[in-house]
Amino acid sequence: MRRTSKALALLASLLEAVVAVGCNDSSGPDGSSTTTVTAVSPATGLLAGGTSVTITGTNFVGVTSVTIGGNELVSRTVVSPAKITGTTPAATGPGATDVVVTSSSHGRGVCSGCFSYESASGGGREIAFFSRRGGTYQIDGMDADGSGVIQLTRVDNPFWLYSAEPVWSADGSKIAFYDTDIYVINADGSGRRNLTNSAAWERLPAWSLNGTKILYESMHCEINGNLVSCDNPDIYVMNADGSNQVNLTNNPAGDWSPAWSPDGTKIIFVTYRDGNGEIYVMNADGSSAVNLTNNPAADVYPAWSPDGTKVAFERGNQIYLMNADGANPVALATFVGGDPYWSQPRWSPDGTKIAFAGGGLSVINADGSDLRSLTSNAVRPKWSPDGTKIAFTSDLYASGEIYVINADGSGLVNLTNNPAWDGFPAWRPR
Prior knowledge:
Strand content: over 45%
Oligomer: single chain
Number of helices: 1
């Protein structure tokens, strides 16, 4: 009887030890400490996959497999024994899934339900946009066909020019926007946070590709009746949680339109420190600012190519292309009509084409060939993540509608078709 009791006690203690391990195996195949998986960031992503994630834990040594929901992590990189990066595989349905890391020397670690796939109708929408539906300024979301419109958050600043255009983080989990201060919300509109919370006005947030930092403009403004006047802005950078806000330019002439290089080491921007609009580039810490254009004409709205080797920009009523160091500027196209403020060249995701809106929407190959006029009355074009479609705002100063068109000019569709003003669409990254 005593032997039986001892055996049962031993069994109970073993079971207790197994339970205490939680969602990770207790030991590797050689008896060493096991692989553990503690967290995945971000913890949500789209069903289509493609969300860049970082997996943290211990004993990521001799890794043979990393799965999310039973499917292998794409572009897996074991950064260190405590960190793995990659992109999520596609899933067949929404919900929480397990993240599993298998090591040849440390066994199998499981984090149960650590990553959740979101459906198109939940956890946000495919296109975020600025709207005046309901008589208020707000950021809304909709599916790619214009259905499922939901309000994501309010915008309190009545001067819409300083309060528009939502900007997605690269992983599609968050949206930054400006409402006098820079705010961030989750993709579904929850978790609204004021990041800057200053007496100045901030606008035009720009996420770094790794999602850790945000660039923005900051200026001091005064309201006089229906008019707002602001001094020249400087370019700031902060951590994605709003901490460590740093003035990168600190120049009285004013600096605008900051944009990260694809590798995150450089920032391109527009400045009037030379008496006219010039395009400069500086290091990510604000050092070593260099004039790339150095031309009597106004050079504005620079846009990096996806590979970081070229920069498209606007000079007068022309779209130009130059090397990333400012060499070999070449005029690609001339546009007639429209407001130059809204033309803004945009690269296709694969870097082969440039869309711009000079009066109407046009597309041209990056080598200057095959210029096509797709439609009239368009501003601020935005490519879909797969490069097959372009969304844009029409009737900017009237009713304001968001349209989408195929990249070849076919299939023009009014997505919003609403009496209220809608504009400035932003596709959710995949």
